[in-house]
Structures are given as structure tokens and as C-alpha cells.
Write a structure and sequence with these properties.
This protein is of the alpha/beta class. 34% of the residues are buried. It has a single domain, classed as Rossmann fold. Strands 1, 4, 5, 6, 7, 8, 9 and 10 form an eight-stranded mixed sheet that branches. It has a two-stranded antiparallel ribbon with strand order 2-3. It is globular, with a radius of gyration of 18 Å. β2 and β3 form a beta hairpin. 30% of the residues lie in helices and 33% in strands.
């Protein structure tokens, strides 16, 4: 199941426009803030699909019955680019446990690269809802490897994959390689083109570098 928030006319698209804008991108704090804002909107939309139960809340004047989350999802992200999104998710799901996957592109002299996963940390996730966030879904390789790394912590009940901008090729890759009945893919936009270096066009560039500075 794919849910594209960019197809709706909401404030979400204002933030999407700003993270794409090459001039606004020169302000790293604004770039990170917009990633957080978009992640918070994603989190709100995902909350509609979670289980709730009625709780009795004592006020100064009586007792109110309020639907509250039955279980908080586990929030997972891919270091380092996903950290602003993770923080935005955590602002909404403030009682969630957290998981982190270290995945990166190891470039070779001929211009090719392999995706390397160095470690994964997090709580047990068996029969729990997991939200895995990463700002860009290009080829889909790093996301697939990160998802498999999370499975070392157990088999989740359902996984919501959240990305700001995806390529059509990446979306198709996820469809082919992940169990569609166990995954919901949330995107802010789907772009058609992917370069030979696996960058999304028009995309936005390197989200990690724009948020935290160029890698050495």
C-alpha cells in the first residue's frame, strides 16, 4: 500500500517545496526543521491506522473517556540522514522506543557503490508496529538492507516505511522485494528519474549533507 501525502493540497507541500529549493537549502537549520515538520505530519497520518483504546481521564470536574493509543510504535531510522525525521516522529510518538540502523554507500573507484550496513540497535519488535524513516528512497537497496537488519530484532506486526522523496524505480523495487501485506509505504513525492549515480531527479540532493554538512 502506497500513501502519497504530496497529492493532497496541504501545508505539507509548502515544506516539500522548501526542502527542494536550492536557495532555502543553504540554511541547514531550516532544512532540518522542515524535515521534522514533514515527519510530524506523517506521524499524525500514521496514527490513524494504529489501535486505540478508551481511557478514563480524571479532570478537576469529573471523568472523561478519551481514546488513547493502545501501543506506541517502535521508531526506527537510518543514520545519519534520517535523524531529523526521527526527531519529528518522536515529538508525536513521545513514548516510543527507538531503533537505529547504520547504512551507507561505499563508493568504488569505477563509480559504482555497494550499500553497507554496519550495525543495528533497538528493542525487540516481534508483533509490534514499526515506523522506519529515511528521507530518500532512490534504488531501494539501503532501505531493503535496513529492513532486513531490523528483522534481527524480531518480526513486526506491520511496518510503515516513511520517505520524503522516492524514485519510481525505488518504489517498484520495494514492491518486488518486501511483503506488500506487511508494509505501508508513505511518500511525500515520487519522481520519475534516477541518475547513473542513483540520485533522484529533480529530488533535492544529498539530504544528509544538507542537514549536517558534507561527509569527509
Amino acid at each position: 500500500m502506497i500513501r502519497n501525502l504530496g497529492q493532497q493540497n496541504t501545508i505539507f507541500n509548502q515544506y516539500l517545496a522548501e526542502i527542494r529549493d536550492a536557495v532555502i537549502q543553504t540554511d541547514p537549520m531550516r532544512f532540518r526543521t522542515n524535515m521534522e515538520r514533514m515527519a510530524m505530519i506523517f506521524a499524525y497520518e500514521i496514527s490513524r491506522m494504529l489501535e486505540f483504546e478508551v481511557a478514563e481521564v480524571s479532570t478537576q470536574l469529573g471523568v472523561a473517556e478519551v481514546p488513547v493509543l493502545k501501543d506506541y510504535p517502535v521508531l526506527a531510522t537510518i543514520l545519519r540522514a534520517g535523524l531529523p525525521m526521527h526527531y519529528g516522529m518522536l515529538k508525536v510518538f513521545d513514548r516510543s522506543e527507538n531503533a537505529f540502523v547504520s547504512a551507507y554507500r561505499k563508493h568504488h573507484k569505477d563509480g559504482s557503490f555497494d550499500v553497507q550496513v554496519e550495525y543495528v540497535s533497538g528493542p525487540p519488535i516481534t508483533d509490534r508496529v514499526v515506523i522506519l524513516s529515511d528521507p530518500m528512497l532512490a534504488t531501494g537497496s539501503s532501505l531493503l538492507l535496513s529492513y532486513k537488519a531490523l528483522l534481527t530484532k524480531g518480526k513486526p506486526k506491520h511496518t510503515h516505511i516513511v520517505t520524503l522523496i522516492a524514485s519510481m524505480e525505488g518504489v517498484q523495487f520495494i514492491r518486488r522485494n518486501l511483503p506488500v501485506d506487511e508494509i505501508t509505504l508513505w511518500v511525500g513525492a515520487i519522481d520519475d528519474e534516477l541518475t547513473a549515480q542513483s540520485y533522484i531527479v529533480p529530488g533535492l540532493g544529498d539530504a544528509g549533507d544538507l542537514a549536517f554538512g558534507a561527509k569527509i
